[in-house]
Write a structure and sequence with these properties.
two-stranded antiparallel ribbon; 93 residues
Length: 93
């Protein structure tokens, strides 16, 4: 409406949304996050493993879709690598 392309009117569908603002290749991108996406990203950013981040996202929104969220992260250019820590050693030889 601010661009003059639409007639000024009250906003009918007023609701909050989570968005991801990124700049992967020096170009700012804004993407709406799917259900549970913000909780998922915040958990990953806090260093939590993938499974724990998915649990946090599902607790935040039962409609959380792990596959869709991972595809969005990869598609946005924000995922560089997936790290598997390997088996832990419980003794030293």
């Amino acid at each position: 409406m601010n661009s003059g392309e639409e007639e000024l009117a009250p906003i009918e569908n007023w609701r909050g949304e989570d968005a991801l603002v990124s700049r992967p290749y020096l170009e700012v991108q804004i993407r709406a996050l799917p259900p549970g996406g913000a909780a998922f990203l915040l958990a990953l950013a806090a260093g939590r493993p993938l499974g724990q981040a998915a649990e946090a996202a599902t607790a935040d929104d039962p409609n959380f879709d792990l596959t869709g969220n991972l595809a969005g992260l990869i598609g946005s250019g924000l995922v560089r690598d997936i790290v598997h820590p390997g088996p832990k050693k419980y003794w030293q030889s």
